[in-house]
Design brief:
Layout (H helix, E strand, L loop, with lengths): L11 H14 L11 H8 L3 H14 L2 E4 L3 E4 L7 H19 L5 H19 L11 H10 L3 H17 L5 H4 L2 H17 L2 H11 L19
Antiparallel strand pairs: 1-2
Helix pairs in contact: 1-3, 2-3, 4-6, 4-7, 4-10, 5-6, 5-9, 6-7, 9-10
Pfam families: GntR (PF00392)
GO molecular function, one term: DNA binding
Keywords: DNA-binding, Transcription, Transcription regulation
């Protein structure tokens, strides 16, 4: 029988991946920026092998583009990915919202209600520029409140990759913001009422998906804006 380690230490691959993912998400590494594994290894203080493994993981998330014998770079969000990415977020979070909203504690419910209100205020401000990360605190609140550890891990793994795809420079023109705003208003009402089913329907609406009560599999696909 194999001896179990007294403590679990994070792998260098995981450390490198989390560090690079954080730098990409906060903009320290910009879309299109070339990534040299030797330079990254020197900066991160490890060998090239964990860096290469980390870059492969980030490519799987859509944060990095790997082109064998050509280049490795931070991915460049494409306009045609904006709506599918938004819809994927709606599909991932719709069921979580439905289950979580009725059992939110008072503090968490107030936090979600307040954050939805702030998001609506931003949408209505004349000077507001659409941001891919505007709703991220709301997503993270639902992740924290989800009591299924496997689902929580899956959501955390997918969130950065999908919101990154929304960082297109023409985001304002790529999405129907009035439709999104209507869905957010409905979600805020559902959170206030603790109505999970209404919250799921509102989440789908805010993410440009059809009503889940009436949608068939053929209806859940990329929408045309």
């Amino acid at each position: 029988m194999f001896a179990q380690p007294s403590e679990t230490r994070p792998l260098l691959r995981d450390i490198a991946r989390d560090r690079l993912r954080s730098e990409i998400m906060r903009g320290s590494l910009c879309p299109g920026e070339r990534l040299d594994d030797q330079e990254l290894a020197a900066r991160l203080g490890c060998s090239r092998t964990p860096v290469r493994e980390a870059l492969a993981d980030l490519a799987h998330l859509g944060l990095v583009e790997l082109r064998a014998n050509r280049y490795t770079r931070v991915a460049v969000p494409a306009r045609e990915d904006v709506v599918p990415a938004l819809q994927a977020l709606g599909l991932l979070f719709g069921g979580v919202v439905r289950v979580t909203v009725p059992r939110l504690g008072d503090r968490s419910r107030s936090a979600v209600f307040r954050r939805l209100g702030l998001l609506l205020d931003c949408l209505e401000a004349p000077s507001w520029q659409p941001s891919a990360d505007a709703a991220t605190p709301i997503y993270r609140t639902f992740i924290e409140e989800c009591r299924n550890p496997m689902l929580t891990a899956a959501l955390r793994g997918a969130l950065d990759g999908l919101t990154f795809r929304l960082r297109h420079r023409e985001l304002e023109a790529a999405l129907p913001w009035q439709d999104i705003r209507t869905g957010i208003v409905a979600l805020r009402v559902a959170v206030d009422l603790r109505d999970g089913r209404l919250a799921e329907r509102a989440t789908w609406s805010a993410h440009l998906l059809p009503d889940p009560d009436h949608a068939g599999p053929e209806d859940v696909g990329p929408a045309h804006v």
